[in-house]
Write a structure and sequence with these properties.
There is one protein chain. It contains six helices and six strands; from the N terminus they run ββαββββααααα. It has two domains: 89 residues, Phosphoribosyl-AMP cyclohydrolase (Ubiquitin-like (UB roll), Roll); 92 residues, Orthogonal Bundle (Helix Hairpins). The chain is α+β, with helices and mostly antiparallel strands. α2 crosses α5 and α4 runs antiparallel to α5. β5 and β6 form a beta hairpin. The two termini are 29 Å apart. Helices cover 39% and strands 17% of the residues. The protein has a four-stranded mixed beta sheet with strand order 2-1-6-5, covered by helices on one side. The protein has a two-stranded antiparallel ribbon with strand order 3-4. GO terms for molecular function: ATP binding; phosphoribosyl-AMP cyclohydrolase activity; phosphoribosyl-ATP diphosphatase activity. InterPro entries: His_synth_HisIE, HisE, PRib-ATP_PPHydrolase-like, PRib_AMP_CycHydrolase_dom, PRib_AMP_CycHydrolase_sf. Pathway: Amino-acid biosynthesis; L-histidine biosynthesis; L-histidine from 5-phospho-alpha-D-ribose 1-diphosphate: step 3/9; Amino-acid biosynthesis; L-histidine biosynthesis; L-histidine from 5-phospho-alpha-D-ribose 1-diphosphate: step 2/9. It is an enzyme of class 3 (hydrolase).
């Protein structure tokens, strides 16, 4: 299940005239982030037509400076970027594109053009959720996640409770390596539980964000 993030004022087709394309000779930088992990995937450029195509098509379209034309990401490779939202920066002369890649983003066949295969920092939790979902649907003989799913929601919830207790005990009396390992087990099993309930960390993060506004 795709994570959902609360985003401020996403652009629509009617907002294109707000973007200051003239400031940079008709093109603005378009930074692409993964909509779930927020990993930076690539940098491209858009003119007004490319932004309009992106918003109407639902797939990311750039203006290729080398081809001197509109270029839909993945038009030959099939590795498209499915649009989630587009945001403008404070000066309205650059855009942030949140998208979900279908396949590698970089022409070198990596996730990111910036050399990071997996999302850094806390963004890895969204990557973990994707991995958990994929492994839940393979044979139980090949995956611990699938075996856990096969045992049902009660067993998954029990494992979260067990790992929570072990994390608490490690936090009280264990060394840091033990605490880190138990916390990793807890986060993994929590990801399985949320996936089994057909949800994810997105709503949890929204609650935390609301509680800690300002």
């Amino acid at each position: 299940m795709a994570e959902q993030h609360t985003l401020p004022n996403p652009l629509t087709v009617d907002d294109i005239t707000r973007i200051d394309f003239a400031k940079s000779g008709g093109l603005v930088p378009a930074i692409v982030q993964h909509a779930d992990t927020l990993q930076v995937l690539m940098l491209g450029y858009m003119n007004a037509d490319a932004l309009r195509e992106t918003l109407t098509r639902g797939q990311v379209v750039f203006y290729s400076r080398s081809k001197d034309r509109l270029w839909r990401k993945g038009e030959t490779s099939g590795d498209v970027l499915v649009l989630d939202h587009v945001l403008a920066d404070c000066d309205e002369d650059a855009v942030l594109v949140l998208a979900r890649p279908e396949g590698p983003t970089c022409h070198t066949k990596t996730t990111s053009c910036f050399g990071m295969e997996n999302a850094p920092g806390i963004g890895f939790m969204a990557h973990l959720a994707k991995v958990v979902t994929e492994r839940a649907h393979v044979s139980p003989a090949d995956s611990y996640t699938a075996r856990l799913m096969h045992k049902g929601i009660a067993k998954i919830a029990q494992k979260v409770g067990e790992e929570g207790l072990e994390t608490a005990l490690a936090g009280r009396a264990g060394d840091l390596d033990e605490l880190h390992n138990e916390a990793a087990d807890l986060l993994y099993h929590l990801s399985v539980l949320l996936m089994a309930r057909e949800t994810g960390l997105g709503p949890v993060l929204d609650i935390l964000r609301e509680r800690h506004k300002g």
